[in-house]
TrEMBL record:
Its EC number is 3.2.1.21. This is Beta-glucosidase. Belongs to the glycosyl hydrolase 1 family. The lineage of its organism: Bacteria, Bacillati, Actinomycetota, Actinomycetes, Streptosporangiales. Keywords: Carbohydrate metabolism, Cellulose degradation, Glycosidase, Hydrolase, Polysaccharide degradation. GO terms for biological process: cellulose catabolic process. It comes from Nonomuraea wenchangensis. GO terms for molecular function: beta-glucosidase activity.
């Protein structure tokens, strides 16, 4: 299984999950600082205060990337380092960190992929309403433009948002993520304002290649998980279509076609109305993009659930039952269904044929142990191997797939799960900050060297 020439191999991280140094060089507070410092929100009451200390160790981390032969590194910029209060002049010491990081990457022959928003909203903006407030979209576009002005001489690959579904619905819907609000109407408004911010920012990131990164999954009935040919009955099919609209089409239809699925508008009608969707917004959101970034971990499994109320993370999901897959699971409890990835990529390439695709995250948490300086994470190797075979199948089936980035380079702060879930191909000992290449890192490096399996 050899991948196309120029297929991009890399790894991904995010600012709050690895950087630490939360008070350094004028960084402002983010909603994740506030949230993680509020007892009970994160497992073990862990915080990102130190994390992987990447802010101080980035040179060594880039050296590891080079050793692993990564061609690309996707990282995110902490908005509160650049604009401590979310607007106004750029903090020179904050942006200087990313200047140094980009230079270090380029010197190592690694192409930077910059994500502008991976969930660390400046707390000052949250206090003015956060993403539920329309103005945040404009603040985001200004911030994006300021970063572009500083880095575009060396960075060409830009992602506006990471996983707007998660930011809106876990942040403002069920409150599992920062800022921890629990209000369906705010979640729906936030989703729209995130999209608006994406559209406004996308127009200010030229010259450059622009991408929107979504958490997408094939939505399947329990029977379809193990039998792609299974045909669901009418009620189950309706549940599948509804959740697909809420998870994926809610973001990609406006971004690519300038339209909202009727399921999203109906959900808004039932939760505070559609007044926040102003004339012209959809035209703004439909800014040309070059790539859709796909973060895939597991399928979404649903069936009809007559009479069930909507789940707090899924306004509009009335009459749907979220089900479990008959499949082995990772340490997150997420089902391992590798061919979900090819099913997803093929569908996206059919539904949005004018836009290229890149797998911007894929990976798994397992309970790794270090033994004599080694980490024998055979389960992670199997997970990655299985999923890469499906990426290859999707390419063979004609999907315009440009690359694959593993989540994650390093073990890191896994949001509400804290440090107890390890996704890295590189192990981090948080007490000493020692890095140890796991077997999966060595295996991945071989895959890259061969451009295939
Ligand atoms: C994704 C996030 C990423 C990481 C993985 C496991 O939803 O984008 O930061 O936490 O899940």
């Amino acid at each position: 299984m050899i991948f196309p020439e120029n297929f991009v191999w890399g790894a991904a991280t995010a600012s709050y999950q690895i950087e630490g140094a939360v008070k350094e060089d004028g960084r402002g507070q983010s909603i994740w600082d506030t949230f993680s410092h509020t007892p009970g929100n994160v497992a073990g009451d862990d915080t990102g205060d130190v994390a992987c200390d990447h802010y101080h160790r980035y040179r060594d981390d880039v050296a590891l990337m080079r050793e692993l032969r990564l061609a690309a590194y996707r990282f995110s910029i902490a908005w509160p380092r650049v604009q401590p209060d979310g607007s106004g002049p750029v903090n020179p010491r904050g942006i200087a960190f990313y200047d140094r990081l980009v230079d270090e990457l380029l010197a190592a022959g690694i192409t930077p992929y910059v994500t502008l928003y991976h969930w660390d909203l400046p707390q000052a903006l949250e206090e003015r309403g956060g993403w539920a407030d329309r103005d945040t979209a404009h603040r985001f576009a200004d911030y994006a433009e300021a970063v572009h002005a500083r880095l575009a001489d060396r960075v060409t690959n830009w992602a506006t948002l990471n996983e707007p579904w998660v930011a809106a619905y876990l942040g403002y819907g069920n409150g599992v993520h920062a800022p921890g609000r629990r209000d369906a109407a705010s979640a729906l408004r936030s989703a729209h304002h995130l999209l608006l911010g994406h559209g406004l920012a996308a127009r200010r990131l030229r010259p450059g290649s622009v991408m929107l990164v979504v958490n997408s999954s094939p939505v399947l009935t329990p029977a379809q998980v193990n039998d792609p040919a299974a045909v669901p009955g009418e009620a189950d099919a309706a549940a599948v279509d509804r959740i697909h609209a809420l998870l994926t089409r809610q973001f990609l239809d406006p971004a690519v076609y300038g339209t909202y699925p009727e399921e999203v508008l109906a959900a808004a009608e039932r939760n505070g109305g559609t007044g926040h969707i102003c004339d012209g917004d959809l035209d703004t959101i439909k800014a040309p993009i070059d790539l859709i970034g796909v973060n895939y971990y597991n399928p979404c499994v649903v069936e009809a659930g007559p009479g069930l109320p909507a789940d707090a993370a899924w306004p509009g999901s009335e009459d749907v039952r979220f089900a479990t897959a008959d499949a082995p699971t990772t340490a997150m409890g997420w089902p391992i269904v590798p061919d979900g990835l090819s099913r997803l990529l093929v569908r996206l390439s059919q539904d949005y044929p004018q836009v290229g695709l890149m797998v911007t995250e894929n990976g798994a948490a397992f309970d790794d142990v270090v033994e004599n300086g080694r980490v024998h994470d055979a389960d992670r190797v199997a997970y990655l191997d299985g999923h890469l075979r499906e990426v290859w199948r999707a390419v063979e089936a004609g999907a315009d797939l440009r690359g694959y980035l593993v989540w994650s380079l390093l073990d890191n702060f896994e949001w509400a799960e804290g440090y107890r879930r390890r996704f890295g191909i590189v192990h981090v000992d948080y007490a000493t900050q020692n890095r140890t290449l796991k077997d999966s890192a060595l295996w991945y490096s071989d895959v890259i060297a061969r451009n295939g399996l």
